[in-house]
Protein backbone atom coordinates (compact mmCIF):
# COMPACT_ATOMS: atom_id res chain seq x y z
CA UNK A 1 0.00 0.00 0.00
CA UNK A 2 1.51 3.35 -0.91
CA UNK A 3 1.63 5.51 2.18
CA UNK A 4 1.01 8.70 0.28
CA UNK A 5 -0.70 8.31 -3.03
CA UNK A 6 -2.61 10.76 -5.12
CA UNK A 7 -4.19 13.10 -2.63
CA UNK A 8 -7.38 15.09 -2.94
CA UNK A 9 -10.31 13.85 -5.04
CA UNK A 10 -12.45 12.57 -2.22
CA UNK A 11 -16.04 11.64 -2.89
CA UNK A 12 -18.40 14.35 -1.72
CA UNK A 13 -20.63 13.73 1.23
CA UNK A 14 -23.63 12.14 -0.34
CA UNK A 15 -21.54 9.68 -2.33
CA UNK A 16 -23.94 6.76 -2.12
CA UNK A 17 -23.32 5.39 1.38
CA UNK A 18 -26.72 4.85 2.87
CA UNK A 19 -26.14 3.01 6.15
CA UNK A 20 -26.50 4.94 9.36
CA UNK A 21 -23.20 5.63 11.06
CA UNK A 22 -23.21 7.99 14.02
CA UNK A 23 -26.05 10.35 14.80
CA UNK A 24 -26.37 12.82 17.64
CA UNK A 25 -29.81 14.35 18.07
CA UNK A 26 -30.42 17.26 20.41
CA UNK A 27 -27.49 16.30 22.63
CA UNK A 28 -26.83 18.36 25.76
CA UNK A 29 -24.27 17.59 28.48
CA UNK A 30 -23.42 19.59 31.61
CA UNK A 31 -20.79 18.99 34.27
CA UNK A 32 -22.14 20.58 37.44
CA UNK A 33 -22.72 24.22 36.56
CA UNK A 34 -20.75 23.97 33.32
CA UNK A 35 -22.91 23.53 30.26
CA UNK A 36 -20.41 21.83 27.93
CA UNK A 37 -22.51 21.15 24.81
CA UNK A 38 -26.07 22.10 24.01
CA UNK A 39 -28.54 20.83 21.42
CA UNK A 40 -25.93 19.21 19.20
CA UNK A 41 -27.16 17.52 16.04
CA UNK A 42 -24.55 15.62 14.03
CA UNK A 43 -24.52 12.84 11.49
CA UNK A 44 -21.56 10.81 10.26
CA UNK A 45 -22.43 8.28 7.56
CA UNK A 46 -20.89 4.86 7.96
CA UNK A 47 -17.40 4.67 6.51
CA UNK A 48 -16.99 8.45 6.38
CA UNK A 49 -14.77 10.83 8.31
CA UNK A 50 -16.00 13.84 10.23
CA UNK A 51 -13.57 16.45 11.53
CA UNK A 52 -14.76 18.53 14.49
CA UNK A 53 -13.14 21.91 15.11
CA UNK A 54 -13.95 24.58 17.64
CA UNK A 55 -12.47 26.86 20.27
CA UNK A 56 -10.74 25.39 23.29
CA UNK A 57 -13.18 24.13 25.90
CA UNK A 58 -16.19 24.10 23.56
CA UNK A 59 -16.96 20.46 24.20
CA UNK A 60 -15.16 18.58 21.43
CA UNK A 61 -13.81 15.87 23.72
CA UNK A 62 -17.18 15.77 25.45
CA UNK A 63 -18.76 14.86 22.13
CA UNK A 64 -16.23 12.07 21.57
CA UNK A 65 -16.84 10.81 25.11
CA UNK A 66 -20.56 10.70 24.44
CA UNK A 67 -20.11 8.85 21.18
CA UNK A 68 -17.69 6.37 22.76
CA UNK A 69 -20.11 5.26 25.45
CA UNK A 70 -17.84 6.51 28.23
CA UNK A 71 -20.38 9.23 28.97
CA UNK A 72 -24.12 9.76 28.67
CA UNK A 73 -25.97 12.90 27.54
CA UNK A 74 -28.30 14.76 29.88
CA UNK A 75 -30.66 15.25 26.96
CA UNK A 76 -30.83 13.91 23.44
CA UNK A 77 -29.88 10.68 21.73
CA UNK A 78 -26.46 9.33 20.72
CA UNK A 79 -26.74 6.57 18.15
CA UNK A 80 -23.63 4.67 17.04
CA UNK A 81 -24.25 2.19 14.25
CA UNK A 82 -27.78 1.66 15.46
CA UNK A 83 -26.88 1.37 19.16
CA UNK A 84 -28.01 3.96 21.68
CA UNK A 85 -27.20 2.23 24.95
CA UNK A 86 -23.88 2.96 26.58
CA UNK A 87 -22.37 -0.54 26.61
CA UNK A 88 -23.15 -1.13 22.95
CA UNK A 89 -21.57 2.20 22.01
CA UNK A 90 -18.46 1.25 23.98
CA UNK A 91 -18.27 -2.02 22.08
CA UNK A 92 -18.33 -0.23 18.74
CA UNK A 93 -15.76 2.51 19.31
CA UNK A 94 -11.99 2.67 19.64
CA UNK A 95 -10.50 5.87 21.05
CA UNK A 96 -7.10 7.33 20.23
CA UNK A 97 -6.07 10.07 22.63
CA UNK A 98 -3.72 12.98 22.01
CA UNK A 99 -0.94 11.39 24.06
CA UNK A 100 0.09 7.99 22.80
CA UNK A 101 -0.16 6.29 26.24
CA UNK A 102 2.16 3.50 25.12
CA UNK A 103 3.44 1.19 27.83
CA UNK A 104 7.12 2.13 28.24
CA UNK A 105 8.25 -1.36 29.20
CA UNK A 106 6.68 -3.02 26.18
CA UNK A 107 8.15 -3.15 22.66
CA UNK A 108 6.37 -1.36 19.82
CA UNK A 109 5.04 -4.72 18.65
CA UNK A 110 3.75 -5.64 22.10
CA UNK A 111 2.15 -2.22 22.50
CA UNK A 112 0.38 -2.48 19.16
CA UNK A 113 -0.84 -5.97 20.06
CA UNK A 114 -2.29 -4.92 23.40
CA UNK A 115 -5.77 -4.21 22.10
CA UNK A 116 -5.97 -7.71 20.62
CA UNK A 117 -4.77 -9.25 23.87
CA UNK A 118 -7.48 -7.25 25.63
CA UNK A 119 -9.98 -9.04 23.41
CA UNK A 120 -8.78 -12.37 24.74
CA UNK A 121 -6.41 -13.26 21.90
CA UNK A 122 -3.20 -14.94 23.08
CA UNK A 123 -0.05 -12.83 23.20
CA UNK A 124 1.61 -14.94 20.51
CA UNK A 125 -1.35 -14.80 18.17
CA UNK A 126 -1.86 -11.07 18.75
CA UNK A 127 1.74 -10.33 17.82
CA UNK A 128 1.50 -12.57 14.76
CA UNK A 129 -1.51 -10.53 13.58
CA UNK A 130 0.12 -7.17 14.20
CA UNK A 131 3.63 -7.92 12.95
CA UNK A 132 2.81 -7.87 9.20
CA UNK A 133 1.10 -4.51 9.62
CA UNK A 134 4.29 -2.83 10.79
CA UNK A 135 5.56 -2.32 7.25
CA UNK A 136 2.25 -0.84 6.15
CA UNK A 137 2.30 1.54 9.06
CA UNK A 138 5.85 2.66 8.24
CA UNK A 139 7.31 0.90 11.26
CA UNK A 140 9.21 -2.01 9.72
CA UNK A 141 12.39 -2.73 11.65
CA UNK A 142 11.11 -1.04 14.80
CA UNK A 143 9.08 -3.94 16.16
CA UNK A 144 11.34 -4.57 19.13
CA UNK A 145 12.04 -0.92 19.96
CA UNK A 146 10.73 0.52 23.21
CA UNK A 147 8.57 3.67 22.94
CA UNK A 148 11.45 5.87 24.18
CA UNK A 149 13.51 4.71 21.19
CA UNK A 150 10.88 5.89 18.70
CA UNK A 151 10.22 9.38 17.32
CA UNK A 152 7.00 11.16 18.28
CA UNK A 153 5.49 10.42 14.88
CA UNK A 154 6.37 6.74 15.13
CA UNK A 155 4.88 6.49 18.59
CA UNK A 156 1.64 7.96 17.27
CA UNK A 157 1.68 5.41 14.46
CA UNK A 158 2.08 2.59 16.97
CA UNK A 159 -0.78 4.12 18.98
CA UNK A 160 -2.90 4.33 15.85
CA UNK A 161 -2.05 0.75 14.90
CA UNK A 162 -3.14 -0.33 18.38
CA UNK A 163 -6.42 1.58 17.90
CA UNK A 164 -6.83 0.25 14.38
CA UNK A 165 -6.45 -3.44 15.22
CA UNK A 166 -8.87 -3.17 18.12
CA UNK A 167 -11.43 -4.34 15.58
CA UNK A 168 -13.87 -1.51 16.23
CA UNK A 169 -15.71 -0.01 13.36
CA UNK A 170 -15.70 3.51 14.76
CA UNK A 171 -12.45 5.37 15.41
CA UNK A 172 -12.59 8.41 17.67
CA UNK A 173 -9.41 10.43 17.29
CA UNK A 174 -8.91 13.16 19.88
CA UNK A 175 -6.24 15.51 18.53
CA UNK A 176 -4.03 12.56 17.68
CA UNK A 177 -1.21 14.74 16.37
CA UNK A 178 -1.53 17.67 18.77
CA UNK A 179 1.77 16.90 20.45
CA UNK A 180 3.82 16.58 17.25
CA UNK A 181 6.03 19.21 15.62
CA UNK A 182 4.81 20.67 12.32
CA UNK A 183 6.86 18.47 9.98
CA UNK A 184 6.16 15.23 11.81
CA UNK A 185 2.54 16.22 12.03
CA UNK A 186 2.30 16.77 8.26
CA UNK A 187 3.82 13.34 7.65
CA UNK A 188 1.48 11.77 10.17
CA UNK A 189 -1.55 13.40 8.53
CA UNK A 190 -0.55 12.15 5.07
CA UNK A 191 0.10 8.72 6.44
CA UNK A 192 -3.18 8.52 8.37
CA UNK A 193 -5.14 9.70 5.41
CA UNK A 194 -3.61 7.05 3.17
CA UNK A 195 -4.22 4.39 5.82
CA UNK A 196 -7.89 5.34 6.12
CA UNK A 197 -8.33 5.54 2.36
CA UNK A 198 -6.98 1.99 2.14
CA UNK A 199 -9.12 0.65 4.98
CA UNK A 200 -12.05 2.96 5.64
CA UNK A 201 -13.65 3.21 9.05
CA UNK A 202 -16.23 5.57 10.46
CA UNK A 203 -14.03 8.26 11.95
CA UNK A 204 -14.59 11.31 14.11
CA UNK A 205 -11.49 13.46 14.41
CA UNK A 206 -11.22 16.31 16.89
CA UNK A 207 -8.58 18.85 15.99
CA UNK A 208 -7.55 22.46 16.51
CA UNK A 209 -5.85 22.45 13.13
CA UNK A 210 -8.07 23.54 10.25
CA UNK A 211 -5.66 22.20 7.61
CA UNK A 212 -5.72 18.84 9.34
CA UNK A 213 -9.51 18.90 9.31
CA UNK A 214 -9.51 19.56 5.55
CA UNK A 215 -6.89 16.91 4.87
CA UNK A 216 -8.52 14.17 6.91
CA UNK A 217 -12.25 14.89 6.99
CA UNK A 218 -14.91 14.21 4.40
CA UNK A 219 -16.94 16.75 6.29
CA UNK A 220 -16.05 19.44 8.81
CA UNK A 221 -18.23 20.62 11.64
CA UNK A 222 -17.42 23.89 13.40
CA UNK A 223 -18.59 24.30 16.99
CA UNK A 224 -19.29 27.57 18.75
CA UNK A 225 -17.57 28.52 21.99
CA UNK A 226 -18.95 26.85 25.12
CA UNK A 227 -21.59 25.66 25.30
CA UNK A 228 -20.62 23.93 22.10
CA UNK A 229 -23.31 24.06 19.43
CA UNK A 230 -22.96 23.32 15.76
CA UNK A 231 -22.21 26.62 14.03
CA UNK A 232 -21.54 25.35 10.52
CA UNK A 233 -20.63 22.32 8.49
CA UNK A 234 -18.82 21.89 5.21
CA UNK A 235 -18.35 19.05 2.77
CA UNK A 236 -14.70 18.60 1.82
CA UNK A 237 -14.57 18.13 -1.92
CA UNK A 238 -11.08 18.85 -3.13
CA UNK A 239 -9.48 18.35 -6.52
CA UNK A 240 -6.90 15.64 -7.13
CA UNK A 241 -3.35 16.76 -6.43
CA UNK A 242 -0.10 14.86 -6.76
CA UNK A 243 1.35 16.20 -3.55
CA UNK A 244 0.21 17.70 -0.31
CA UNK A 245 1.87 20.99 -1.23
CA UNK A 246 -0.06 21.18 -4.48
CA UNK A 247 -3.31 20.35 -2.72
CA UNK A 248 -2.76 23.04 -0.10
CA UNK A 249 -2.19 25.56 -2.90
CA UNK A 250 -5.40 24.81 -4.81
CA UNK A 251 -8.07 27.54 -4.79
CA UNK A 252 -10.59 24.99 -3.45
CA UNK A 253 -8.42 24.22 -0.45
CA UNK A 254 -7.67 27.87 0.24
CA UNK A 255 -11.32 28.88 -0.07
CA UNK A 256 -12.60 26.13 2.17
CA UNK A 257 -9.91 26.80 4.75
CA UNK A 258 -10.98 30.44 4.79
CA UNK A 259 -14.63 29.52 5.24
CA UNK A 260 -13.84 27.25 8.17
CA UNK A 261 -11.57 29.85 9.74
CA UNK A 262 -14.26 32.50 9.24
CA UNK A 263 -16.82 30.28 10.96
CA UNK A 264 -14.39 29.68 13.82
CA UNK A 265 -13.74 33.39 14.16
CA UNK A 266 -17.43 34.14 13.57
CA UNK A 267 -16.61 36.53 10.77
CA UNK A 268 -18.45 36.72 7.42
CA UNK A 269 -17.37 34.49 4.55
CA UNK A 270 -18.65 33.67 1.08
CA UNK A 271 -21.97 31.76 0.96
CA UNK A 272 -21.57 28.00 1.14
CA UNK A 273 -23.55 25.48 -0.87
CA UNK A 274 -25.76 23.24 1.24
CA UNK A 275 -24.17 19.96 2.22
CA UNK A 276 -26.04 16.69 2.06
CA UNK A 277 -25.38 13.67 4.17
CA UNK A 278 -24.40 10.49 2.43
CA UNK A 279 -27.90 9.15 2.86
CA UNK A 280 -29.12 12.10 0.80
CA UNK A 281 -30.75 13.95 3.67
CA UNK A 282 -29.47 17.38 4.58
CA UNK A 283 -27.02 17.11 7.45
CA UNK A 284 -28.86 18.57 10.42
CA UNK A 285 -26.56 21.50 11.00
CA UNK A 286 -26.60 25.17 10.30
CA UNK A 287 -24.38 26.50 7.53
CA UNK A 288 -21.97 29.40 7.73
CA UNK A 289 -23.25 32.03 5.39
CA UNK A 290 -22.86 35.59 4.74
N1 LIG B 1 -15.49 15.34 33.53
C1 LIG B 1 -15.65 16.65 33.60
N2 LIG B 1 -15.94 17.27 34.76
C2 LIG B 1 -16.12 18.59 34.82
N3 LIG B 1 -16.04 19.43 33.77
C3 LIG B 1 -15.75 18.88 32.59
C4 LIG B 1 -15.53 17.48 32.43
N4 LIG B 1 -15.27 17.22 31.13
C5 LIG B 1 -15.30 18.41 30.52
N5 LIG B 1 -15.58 19.40 31.37
C6 LIG B 1 -15.75 20.82 31.05
O1 LIG B 1 -16.60 20.89 29.92
C7 LIG B 1 -16.13 21.85 28.99
C8 LIG B 1 -15.85 21.18 27.66
O2 LIG B 1 -14.70 20.35 27.82
P1 LIG B 1 -14.08 19.52 26.62
O3 LIG B 1 -12.85 18.87 27.15
O4 LIG B 1 -15.11 18.67 26.03
O5 LIG B 1 -13.70 20.69 25.60
P2 LIG B 1 -12.71 20.64 24.34
O6 LIG B 1 -13.36 21.43 23.27
O7 LIG B 1 -12.37 19.23 24.03
O8 LIG B 1 -11.46 21.40 24.95
P3 LIG B 1 -9.95 21.50 24.40
O9 LIG B 1 -10.05 21.99 22.99
O10 LIG B 1 -9.32 22.51 25.28
O11 LIG B 1 -9.36 20.12 24.50
C9 LIG B 1 -14.90 22.49 29.62
O12 LIG B 1 -15.29 23.67 30.27
C10 LIG B 1 -14.43 21.46 30.61
O13 LIG B 1 -13.77 22.07 31.70
UniProtKB/TrEMBL annotation:
InterPro entries: AAA+_ATPase, ABC_transporter-like_ATP-bd, ABC_transporter-like_CS, ABC_transporter_ATP-bind, P-loop_NTPase. Residues 22-250 form the ABC transporter domain. It holds the Pfam family ABC_tran. This is ABC transporter related protein. PROSITE patterns: ABC_TRANSPORTER_1, ABC_TRANSPORTER_2. Keywords: ATP-binding, Nucleotide-binding, Transport. GO terms for molecular function: ATP binding; ATP hydrolysis activity. The lineage of its organism: Bacteria, Bacillati, Actinomycetota, Actinomycetes, Frankiales. SUPFAM superfamilies: P-loop containing nucleoside triphosphate hydrolases. PANTHER family: ABC TRANSPORTER ATP-BINDING PROTEIN, TAURINE IMPORT ATP-BINDING PROTEIN-RELATED. SMART domains: AAA.
Amino acid sequence: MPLVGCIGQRGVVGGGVTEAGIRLTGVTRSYGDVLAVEGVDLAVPRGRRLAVVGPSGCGKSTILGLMSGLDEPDQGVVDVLGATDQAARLARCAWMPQRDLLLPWRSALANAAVSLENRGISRREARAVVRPLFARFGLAGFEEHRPRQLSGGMRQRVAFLRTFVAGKEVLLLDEPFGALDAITRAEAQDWLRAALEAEPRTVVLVTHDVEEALLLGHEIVVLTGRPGKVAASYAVDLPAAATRRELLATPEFIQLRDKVLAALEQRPSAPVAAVKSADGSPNPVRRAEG
